[in-house]
Specification:
The complex is a heterotrimer. Chain A is an all-alpha fold. Helices cover 76% and strands 2% of the residues of chain A. Chain A has a two-stranded antiparallel sheet. The longest helix of chain A is centred in the first third of the chain and has 35 residues. Chain A is globular. Chain B has 11 helices and no strands. By secondary structure, chain C is an alpha+beta fold. Chain C is built from 8 helices and 20 strands. Chain C is elongated, with a radius of gyration of 25 Å. The chains are: A mainly alpha, B mainly alpha, C alpha+beta.
Chain lengths: 303, 271, 358
C-alpha cells in the first residue's frame, strides 16, 4: 500500500500537524496578531501607569523607589478628594438621567415599531458617531452668557438680563454629559429588549397579568442586563471626562480628569498624575461593582 | 395583546421629543454657521456663506484636515485588519478562553480616554519614541479595534461554517477559500468597519491631544480655536461640515452592513 | 466487492478531551457501493464522515482511499467530495457559478466548463436554473444543486451528511429514489450518513450501524433486519419483541428453550443446556389465530393503520405486551381483532433470532 504523505520527524512538522488537527490551534494563530498588539498597546501602558504611581518626581528626574506618597497625596489632599466625590457624583447623576430617559425610547423602538425599525435605529445611531468635541462645544454655545438660550429668551422678551447660572458649573456639566452620552444608553437597552421572547409576554397575559404588571415582572427584569450594561458604559468613561468640564464646567465644574491632565501638561508631575488616574479608576471600579451587584440582587428579587 | 391608544401615542410623542432632544442642540452649529454675525446668539441677522469661505481659506485648518484624513485612513485600515482576524478567529473556531479574550479587546471602551492617553504617553516616553502622527495612529488603533471587532463579528456570526468547508472540499486551498468565499461575504462588514473606525479616529480628540507631536489633527486644531471668539463662526462652519459628513458616512456604513442580512437584528457597540 | 477495499477505515478513533466520538472504527467500503452510516444522533457517524472528508483528523488509526493513505491529507486534496447537511450553497454566487466553483482549478476552456455545468444541471433536473441565486431556490432544489456541485468534479467518493433531513416526507421519499438511481447510473461510491433507518434500509447496499462511537454491525439491509448481531441493532432497526430464555435441553440440531411466559420453544442454536438466551421475533412474523398457537394472550390494544393493523397482545406473566403487525391483505370493513379478544400467537421456528445476552 502506497504511503502518501508519511509523517516526517522534526518538531516543525509536528507543529504543522498539530495546527491541522486542532481547531483551537488554528483559532489562536488567527487571533494572535490582534491579541499581541492589544496586549502591547493596552496592558503594557497600564502596567507602566501603575509603576509610575509608585514613583516620585524629583526636579527633572524620577525617583523610582516604590512609595505610596503619591497615593497619600491623591487621597489625602482635600481638593483632590473633593474632586473624586464630585466626579463620581456627576457621573452617577448623568448615568441615572441618561438611562431613565433612554429606556422608554429603547422600549418604543423594540416594541412599538414594525417596519421602520432600521430608520429609527439609524437616526438614533448617527449622534453616537458624531464628533464628541463638537457636541460639547454646541452646549457651550447654547448655555453661554451670550449664548443661544440667553439671547433667544431675551429676544423673545422673556428675560431682561442673561441668566448666569447656565454655564460654568456642575449642572452645565451634567446636562452636557447627559446629552452627549444619550445615544450610548439606548443601544444596549434596545438590544436586550429586542431579545425578549414575545411569547413570554403572551404567556404572562394568559396567566392574568395586565400590561403594567407584565412590564414590571417580565420585561423589566429581562432587560436588566442591557440596563446594567448601558449604565456601566456611561458611568465609567464619564467620570474621567476631560473635554466637558473644561469647556462648560468652569471652576465650579472641575472634574478629576482636569487635575490629571494638568500633571502631564503644565506641572510635569507624572507620578502624581498616574496615582490620581489609578486611584480614580479604583474608585470607579469599586462603585461600579457595587452598583452591578446591587442591580443584580434587585433584579433577582423581582417575582 | 391589547394596547390602549393613549399609551401608543404617548410613547410615540416621547420618542419624537427624545429624537428632537438628541438633534436640536447639535443643529445649532449648522444654523449659526450661516448666520451673518460674529456672535453666536439670537436674533439671526442674515444668511451668509462667508464663514465657509473663510474656513476653507485657512491653511492651518486644511493642513490639520489632511493630517486627520491620513491618520483616520491608516487607523481604519489597521484596526479593520486586526479586527477581521480576531472576529474570524472568535466566530469560526472554538478558541480556548475566547470569551475572556473578547472581553479583553473591548477593555479600551471602558477605560476613560484620559487614562488611555496618559498611559500611552508613559509608554512612548519610556521607549524613547517621539510623538508624531504615527503615535496618534497607534493610539487610535487601540480604541478602534473594539469597534471593528464588534461590527465584523455581527456580520460573521451567522456565517455558515460549512461554506468554507464546502470550498475546501471542492478543491480550493485555505487561502483561495478566503478570497473566493470568506472575503466576498464579509465585504459589507469590512467596508462598514472601515467607515466607522475612520469616523471614530477622525473625531477623536483627547488621545490625539496627548500623543500628537507638532502636527495637529483636526480636533486638536478646533480645540485650539475655541479660545478665540472671533474665530468661532468659522469653527461652526467646519463643525457643520464635519457633522454632515459623519452622518452620511454612518448611514452608508450601516446600510452596507445590514444589506443582505435580511432580518438580522443588527447590534451596535455597547451591546 | 473487489479484493482491495475502495475505502478502508483502519481502526480509527477520534477523541475530544476525554470522550471518544469515534471508538476504534474499522470498516471497508467497496467500489461503487451505496454505503450508509446509520445511528442515533451523537453516535459518531458524522464525525466519521468528516474524517473521510478531511475536516477532522483521527486521533488514532488510518484512512485509505483506493489504497492511498489520506489520513492527514487536507480536504482540498482528497479524491472525495461532500454534500453538506446545510447544503452550503454560496449565497454570493448563482447556481451556475456554484456548480462551476470546484472546476476553477481544472482550468477548463469556457465552452467545456459550460457544457459540464449544463450537463450537471440536466442531471439534477434543474436545466435553465443557472442564473438563479441560492435564496430563490426551495430546499429540495438547493439540495440538488449541492449534489451537482459535488458530482461535477467526478470524485471517487461522494460523502453525504444527512442531505435529506430538512425535506418534508414526500419530497424526501422521492429524493431517496432519485439518489439511488443517480448513484447507480454514475457508478460513484456513496457514503451516506443518516439517522433514519427506513431511509438507510431502502437506499443502501450495505449499512454500518453505529452507537456511542462504535460500529455495531456492518451488513446488507436484509441481513441487519433479519439477523441483527446484538440487542442494540435489533432494537434500533424496526420494531422487535424480546424474550428471555434458558436452554433446558437439546433435541437434535435445536435447543429446547424455556422462555418463561411464552412457553417452551425449539430454537436453532448450538448453545448448551443452562445457557441464558435473548430471543427476538419481529412483529410481522407473528400471526394471530383464534384457534390455537404457541402462546395465548389477550388483545390489549388494536390500531388500524390502513395498510396494516398493529396489535399489543398481553401475555400472562409478561410485563410488556407482544407487538404484532398484520398486513390487511383482505378487504374488510368490519373490525379485525378487537380489544379484549382472546387470541393465539404463532410464528415459524426460523423467525426467532438469537442474540448474545450481555
Amino acid at each position: 500500500m502506497a504511503a502518501v504523505g508519511a509523517r516526517s520527524e522534526g518538531w516543525t512538522a509536528r507543529l504543522v500537524h498539530l495546527y491541522r488537527r486542532s481547531e483551537g490551534a488554528r483559532g489562536i494563530v488567527l487571533l494572535s496578531p490582534t491579541m499581541l498588539i492589544m496586549l502591547a498597546a493596552l496592558a503594557a501602558p497600564m502596567a507602566l501607569l501603575a509603576l509610575y504611581s509608585f514613583w516620585t518626581q524629583e526636579g527633572y528626574g524620577l525617583n523610582t523607589t516604590p512609595t505610596l506618597a503619591q497615593y497619600a497625596i491623591s487621597l489625602g489632599r482635600p481638593t483632590y478628594r473633593e474632586l473624586f466625590y464630585r466626579s463620581i457624583e456627576i457621573s452617577s447623576v448623568v448615568t441615572l438621567i441618561t438611562v431613565l430617559l433612554a429606556y422608554p425610547m429603547a422600549y418604543f423602538v423594540a416594541f412599538r415599531v414594525g417596519k421602520s425599525k432600521f430608520i429609527w435605529l439609524i437616526l438614533l445611531t448617527i449622534p453616537f458617531w458624531t464628533s464628541y468635541l463638537l457636541r460639547v462645544f454646541a452646549w457651550k454655545l447654547i448655555l453661554g452668557y451670550n449664548g443661544v438660550i440667553n439671547s433667544g429668551l431675551m429676544d423673545l422678551g422673556l428675560i431682561r438680563q442673561p441668566l448666569e447660572f447656565l454655564l460654568y458649573n456642575p449642572t452645565a456639566v451634567v446636562v452636557t454629559l447627559a446629552h452627549a452620552w444619550a445615544a450610548f444608553a439606548i443601544l444596549p437597552i434596545y438590544v436586550s429588549l429586542e431579545k425578549i421572547d414575545r411569547s413570554l409576554l403572551e404567556a404572562a397575559a394568559d396567566l392574568g397579568d395586565g400590561p403594567v404588571r407584565r412590564f414590571f415582572r417580565i420585561t423589566l427584569p429581562l432587560s436588566l442586563p442591557g440596563v446594567i450594561g448601558a449604565a456601566v458604559l456611561i458611568f465609567v468613561p464619564t467620570t474621567g471626562d476631560y473635554v466637558t468640564p473644561t469647556l462648560v464646567g468652569g471652576s465650579g465644574g472641575v472634574m478629576i480628569a482636569n487635575v490629571i491632565e494638568v500633571q502631564f501638561d503644565k506641572v510635569g508631575n507624572w507620578p502624581l498624575g498616574a496615582a490620581l488616574a489609578m486611584a480614580s479608576m479604583a474608585a470607579v471600579g469599586v462603585v461600579t461593582l457595587l452598583f452591578v451587584a446591587a442591580m443584580r440582587a434587585a433584579g433577582r428579587s423581582i417575582r | 395583546m391589547t394596547r390602549t391608544g393613549k399609551s401608543r401615542t404617548g410613547l410615540f410623542a416621547y420618542a419624537v421629543f427624545y429624537l428632537a432632544f438628541l438633534y436640536v442642540p447639535v443643529l445649532f452649529l449648522p444654523l449659526f454657521s450661516f448666520n451673518d454675525s460674529a456672535f453666536i446668539a439670537f436674533p439671526l441677522t442674515g444668511f451668509t456663506t462667508k464663514w465657509y469661505s473663510q474656513m476653507l481659506a485657512d491653511s492651518a485648518m486644511l493642513h490639520a484636515l489632511g493630517n486627520s484624513l491620513e491618520v483616520g485612513a491608516l487607523a481604519a485600515l489597521i484596526s479593520t485588519v486586526l479586527g477581521l482576524l480576531a472576529a474570524k478567529a472568535l466566530t469560526r473556531y472554538r478558541v480556548p478562553g475566547g470569551a475572556a479574550l473578547l472581553g479583553f479587546t473591548s477593555l479600551p471602551l471602558f477605560i476613560p480616554d484620559i487614562v488611555l492617553g496618559i498611559s500611552l504617553l508613559l509608554l512612548l516616553s519610556g521607549l524613547g519614541l517621539p510623538l508624531s502622527l504615527l503615535t496618534v495612529i497607534a493610539g487610535h488603533c487601540l480604541i478602534c479595534v473594539p469597534f471593528a471587532i464588534t461590527v465584523l463579528m455581527s456580520r460573521l456570526d451567522g456565517f455558515d461554517k460549512s461554506l468554507e468547508e464546502a470550498s475546501l472540499d471542492l478543491g480550493e486551498t485555505g487561502w483561495m477559500t478566503f478570497w473566493r468565499v470568506t472575503f466576498p461575504l464579509a465585504l459589507p462588514g469590512i467596508v462598514s468597519s472601515l467607515l466607522l473606525t475612520f469616523i471614530v479616529s477622525f473625531d477623536e480628540f483627547l488621545i490625539a491631544y496627548f500623543l500628537a507631536g507638532s502636527e495637529a489633527t483636526l480636533p486638536i486644531y478646533i480645540w485650539g480655536q475655541l479660545r478665540f471668539p472671533y474665530k468661532l463662526p468659522a469653527v461652526l462652519a467646519l463643525g457643520a461640515l464635519i457633522l454632515i459628513a459623519s452622518a452620511v458616512l454612518v448611514v452608508i456604513a450601516e446600510w452596507i452592513r445590514s444589506h443582505g442580512l435580511k432580518d438580522r437584528k443588527h447590534t451596535m457597540v455597547g451591546a | 466487492m473487489t479484493d482491495e477495499p475502495f475505502i478502508h477505515i483502519d481502526h480509527v478513533s477520534k477523541r475530544f478531551g476525554g470522550t471518544a466520538a469515534v471508538d476504534d472504527a474499522d470498516l471497508s467500503v467497496g467500489r461503487g457501493e451505496f454505503f450508509s452510516l446509520l445511528g442515533p444522533s451523537g453516535c459518531g457517524k458524522t464525525t466519521l464522515l468528516r474524517m473521510i472528508a478531511g475536516f477532522e483528523f483521527p486521533t488514532e488509526g488510518e484512512i485509505y482511499i483506493e489504497g492511498a493513505r489520506i489520513t492527514d491529507t487536507p480536504p482540498h486534496l482528497r479524491p472525495s467530495n461532500m454534500v453538506f447537511q446545510s447544503y452550503a450553497i454560496f449565497p454570493h454566487l448563482n447556481v451556475f457559478d456554484n456548480i462551476a466553483y470546484g472546476l476553477r482549478k481544472a482550468r477548463l476552456k469556457r465552452s467545456e466548463l459550460k457544457r459540464r455545468v449544463e450537463e450537471a444541471l440536466a442531471m439534477i433536473k434543474l436545466a435553465g436554473f443557472g442564473s438563479r441565486r441560492g435564496d430563490e431556490l426551495s430546499g429540495g432544489q438547493r439540495q440538488r444543486v449541492a449534489l451537482a456541485r459535488a458530482l461535477v468534479r467526478r470524485p471517487k467518493v461522494l460523502l453525504l451528511d444527512e442531505p435529506l433531513g430538512a425535506l418534508d416526507k414526500r419530497l424526501r421519499e422521492a429524493m431517496q429514489i432519485e439518489l439511488r438511481q443517480l448513484q447507480k447510473s454514475v457508478g460513484i461510491t456513496f457514503v451516506f450518513v443518516t439517522h433514519d433507518q427506513e431511509e438507510a434500509l431502502s437506499m443502501s447496499d450495505r449499512i454500518a450501524v453505529m452507537s456511542g462511537g462504535r460500529i455495531l454491525q456492518v451488513a446488507s439491509p436484509r441481513e441487519l433486519y433479519e439477523a441483527p448481531n446484538c440487542r442494540e441493532v435489533a432494537d434500533f432497526i424496526g420494531e422487535i419483541n424480546f424474550f428471555d430464555g434458558v436452554v433446558k435441553g437439546r433435541e437434535g440440531d435445536a435447543a429446547v428453550v424455556d422462555a418463561g411466559p411464552i412457553g417452551t420453544l425449539r430454537v436453532a442454536t448450538q448453545a448448551a443446556a443452562g445457557t441464558k438466551l435473548l430471543l427476538a421475533v419481529r412483529p410481522e412474523k407473528i400471526a394471530l389465530s383464534a384457534e390455537g398457537g404457541i402462546v395465548a394472550g389477550t388483545v390489549a390494544a388494536a390500531a388500524y393503520l390502513g395498510e396494516r393493523s398493529h396489535y399489543n397482545i398481553a401475555v400472562a406473566g409478561r410485563r410488556e405486551p407482544v407487538s404484532v403487525a398484520a398486513q390487511n391483505t383482505e378487504k374488510s370493513v368490519t373490525r379485525g381483532h378487537a380489544q379484549g379478544d382472546k387470541v393465539y400467537l404463532n410464528w415459524a421456528a426460523d423467525a426467532v433470532v438469537v442474540l448474545p445476552c450481555d
